[in-house]
Amino acid sequence: MSYSLKTKRALLAVLCALIICISFATTAAYADEREIYLGGFAAGFVLNTKTVEVVGLCDVLSESGVSSPARDCGIMAGDVIESINGAEVDEADDLNRALDEQCKYYEIVVRRGDETLTVRAVPVLDRASRSRKLGMLVKDSVNGIGTVTFVDKTRNMIASLGHPVTDRSKNIMQINGGAIYTCAIYGVKKGMRGNPGELKGSIESNYMIGAASQNGACGIFGRVSEELDTSELKKIKTANIGEAEMGKATIYSTVTENRTEEYDISIIKVDAFNKDNRNFVIRVDDRELIELSGGIVQGMSGSPIVQNGKLIGAVTHVFVNDPTRGYGIAIDKMLNSY
Fold it and tell me: Which pTM was predicted?
C-alpha cells in the first residue's frame, strides 16, 4: 500500500502529536511526587461535630420532685437536636443558651434516622444548680484512635486514617475543628475471623500534634502543631498509583510498646479507579504482626504502605472474615483531597 506525500505528512503530524501527548501525560502523572515525613505512629482524635446527639436520658431533681422532661416529650437516645425555639443547635452550648431564655415551653426539632420530629418540652429547675434542665445527656464531639499516614511540613499538613469518621447511618460526620494528640498504645485485642481486633490506647491530651480541620472521604486532615517533633521521622518520596504493582510491600504501624515498626505485606490487587477509594487489596505476611494482632485491627487505619522505597498508600479497612487481609487507599487520593 502506498501513500501520497500529503498523506505521509499528515500521518507524521499525527504521530508527533501523539508523542507529545504521551510525554505530557507521563509528566503530569508524576508531577505530584514530593518528599514528606512518613507516619506510622498512633494518634488520638477529638473532633468537634456540627451536631448535638442525645446519648442518654436522666432524671432531674427539682423542688417538686424527680422528672425527665426530655423522656416525657418522647426524646430518645440517638436523636440529634436540630433546633430549639427556631434557633439552630450546632453545639451543646447552643442548647444551654436556649434554656437560659424565659419561655413557657420549648419547641425542639430532632432528627431520628431519616425522620424529623417536633416535640414540646417544659424544662424543670434543677434544685442543686438552679438552672433549667431537660433531663438528657448530649455530646457534640467524638474521639478515637488511629494512625498518622504522613506529615507534610511544606503544606503544613498532617494526614491520617485514610477513610472518614462516620455517624450511625454511615454518613461522613461534618466537623467543626478538633485536635490530634499523641496516643500511648498499651495493648491490642487480637483480631479473629468474624471478630475484628483493636488497638488499646490512651489519648495524651497534653501533647497536641495537629489541629483537625477536615474529615473527608480520604481521612482526617489538619494543620501541623509546632509541638510535633519530626526530627526522628523518616523522609520519603510519594509515588503515583501508576507506580504501584502487585507483589511485596511493607506497612508502618505502632502495635506495641509505642514503637513504630515495619511489617511485611503483599499487594494482591491494584484498582486505581475504585469509587470507594479501595485502591489496594493487601495481605499481611509478617509472622510477628500476625502473632501480635492477628493481622489488621481497628486503630491501624492510616498505617502507611511503602513499596520500592516510596509511599504509595495507607491501610483503611480489614476483611471481617480474614484479619490478615484488608484494603488500602492510594496516597495520591489523600494528597489531592486536602
Answer: 0.81
Pairing of strands 310-319, 235-238: parallel
pLDDT per residue as tens digits for the range 313-332: 999 999 999 999 999 999 99
> How far apart (Å, rounded) are the C-alpha atoms in residues 83 and 52?
10
d(CA 38, CA 126): 52
CA distance 89 to 6: 73
When pLDDT is cut at 50, 70 and 90, the band that residue 15 belongs to is: very low
Q: What's the burial of 65, exposed, middle or buried (CB within 10 Å: 0-12/13-18/19+)?
A: exposed
Asked if 220 and 318 count as a contact pair (C-beta separation under 8 A), the reply is: no
CA distance 279 to 321: 20
The more confidently predicted of residues 41 and 337 is 41
Task: Write out the three cell numbers for 324.
Answer: 490478615
Q: d(Cα 315, Cα 308) in Å, to the nearest integer?
A: 17
∠6-7-13 over CA atoms, to 5°? 95
142: phi then psi, degrees, rounded to nearest 5: -130, 155
Smallest CA-to-CA distance from 120 within 171, 147, 85 is with 85
Return the higher-pLDDT residue of 235 and 14.
235
Instruction: Name beta bridge partners: 306.
Output: 250, 311
| CA gap 147, 263 in Å, rounded | 15
- 211 close to 269: Cβ distance less than 8 angstroms: no
Q: Give the model's pLDDT for residue 16.
A: 44
Kindly state the helix (H) or strand (E) to which residue 227 belongs, with its residue range.
Answer: none
What distances in angstroms separate CA 95 from CA 51, 54, 92, 128, 200, one per listed residue? 11, 12, 5, 19, 33
Question: Residues 179-183: what's their mean pLDDT?
Answer: 95
- Locate 331 and state its grid cell: 496516597
Q: Residue 5: is its pLDDT beyond 60?
A: no
